[in-house]
Amino acid sequence: MAEETQKPEAAAAAPAEEVVVVEKEEEVAAPVAPEATDAVVEEKQAEVEAVEETKVEEKEAKVTQSASFKEETNIVGELPEAQKKAFEEFKQLIQEALNTGGFSAPPPSPPAKEKDAKPPAEEKKEEDQPPAAETEEKAPENVETEAPASVEIKEEEKTPPPAETPAPETVVETEVVVEKVTAVEDDGAKTVEAIEESVVAVVAPADEKPEETASSSVEPEVVPKDEPKEAEVPPSPPEEVSIWGIPLLADERSDVILLKFLRARDFKVKDAFTMIKNTVIWRKEFGVEGLLEEDLGNELEKVVFMHGHDKEGHPVCYNAYGEFQNKELYQNTFGDDEKRSKFLRWRIQFLEKSIRKLDFSPTGISTIVQVNDLKNSPGLGKRELRQATNHALNLLQDNYPEFLAKQVFINVPWWYLAFNKMISPFLTQRTKSKFVFASPSKSTDILFRYVAPEQVPVQYGGLSRDGKQEFSDADAATEELIKPATKHTVEFPITEKCALVWELRVVGWEVNYSAEFVPAAEDAYTVIVSKTRKIGLTDETVISDSFKTGDAGKIVLTIDNQTTKKKKLVYRTKAKPYSD
């Protein structure tokens, strides 16, 4: 889901606007009467200036909208008036397409021979219209020679002209030579028809009909008698089209979907309609509905997976590209075209299942936060990975608009930052506003900015772990900052008989940790719960501990940071009743 690079259509939008202005300037330069020249020029210049001012205002409005970091409303009634109008026009276009089958894939193009052949009705229309430039050029040559290559000319018997006609005229009849090539035969027939028409116009009086020839090329031009019966066929019912399990124009949920396509095309109605039409056709051709039922295996479940929600309730999707350092997994995924095709189908299937769990009500959550872990990523040197990724990104960008609330890149190497700087000018401001980059040392802090620690997987610095644990993702954690070269303490008060449990971790560790129970009674002794020990970066991910007591007091945790760097501490606790 790679989002929305500037499409060639979008990139060409600005030049198209310039062309419109140029056309109006050309109109100003058109020749006019000398006495009206000044007035016309002033009027046209005023119109051009008004158009340019309007366009400047529209561009400023678009820039302001694109620079917004907040998601826009999906309630139609809260949209600005211009967007409401575009939305209604968009719905009208979709309804017309549903009524006329406009979302069906176009039929395959006919063979070349069938393309050259034209139905009789079309030939009749061409006879009624003025001859094309090509025919006009050929007609004089045929009149002079009276023997084109594709036909034979025979002279009919001369008929006595009416008394008022000074001299008789010759009417010619054409016969098609069967031995000639079909394309030449058609061209020849059309040329002779044009000649016949010009001759008859001179010979036939106003009150008489021209003689009917026995030419075989003229007879097929008669309109079939059965043609009017087509109007008697009852209209077909509107086409039923669904996207992500939601029928178009069915209810307010489809409004949310339509707004996604409109926003992806800056509320340009025709562009948005082209996009949604292409998406519907692609989904039919790709077989998305049937894809949901396919069993494509679970070999990639550690590469792409959903886990938890961000602080605003968006589901979070993690992409761990470092898993492809496993040569066997890489070869099984990208080894040949068939395997790359399977990977693409698996990725689309995964996204489709994730999208169908979203809430498409106007006030619901219908977007995803995506976290891209570039640690140990194979990089741009792997051609097969690059090809498969680009193909997938193009499909996601063209057919899954506005599904990303935020795109977070963590453990970003220096080369990726350089690559992003090169492609940044080609990204829209709206797209760039969703991108966040974090170096390896800042990745966890950046993640915690958007996702709570209890929702972040343990491998990314959080507390969320698989399997049965004392705490769940619903148990909130507390974040605190440990200053360099200081001892930081955390206290958990105990007021009644209970079993107190806690878990904590320090991002980057390299600290000393200890825990003790200090009773409230003055004559009681302090109880050491956990002796002081140094914890390195790879020693432990999360410390889980507990203490049972029937006395009032407090648990004191001590974290000694002897380094020159600040440390992030994350912890949570709860009391459980117990009996002796």
UniProtKB/TrEMBL annotation:
Composition bias, Basic and acidic residues: 112-128, 222-232
Pfam families: CRAL_TRIO, CRAL_TRIO_N, GOLD_PATL1_C
InterPro entries referenced in this protein's UniProt entry, alphabetically: CRAL-TRIO_dom, CRAL-TRIO_dom_sf, CRAL/TRIO_N_dom, CRAL/TRIO_N_dom_sf, GOLD_dom, PATL, PATL1-6_C_GOLD
Annotated ranges, domain GOLD: 474-575
Region feature Disordered, mapped onto this chain: 97-173, 204-239
Keyword Cytoplasm on entry: yes
Keywords: Cell cycle, Cell division, Cytoplasm, Lipid-binding, Membrane, Transport
Keyword Transport: yes
Signal sequence segment: none
SMART domains xrefs: CRAL_TRIO_N, SEC14
PANTHER family: PATELLIN-1 (PTHR45932), PATELLIN-2 (PTHR45932:SF27)
Family designation: Belongs to the patellin family.
Protein name per Swiss-Prot or TrEMBL: Patellin-3
Phylogenetic classification of the source organism: Eukaryota, Viridiplantae, Streptophyta, Embryophyta, Tracheophyta
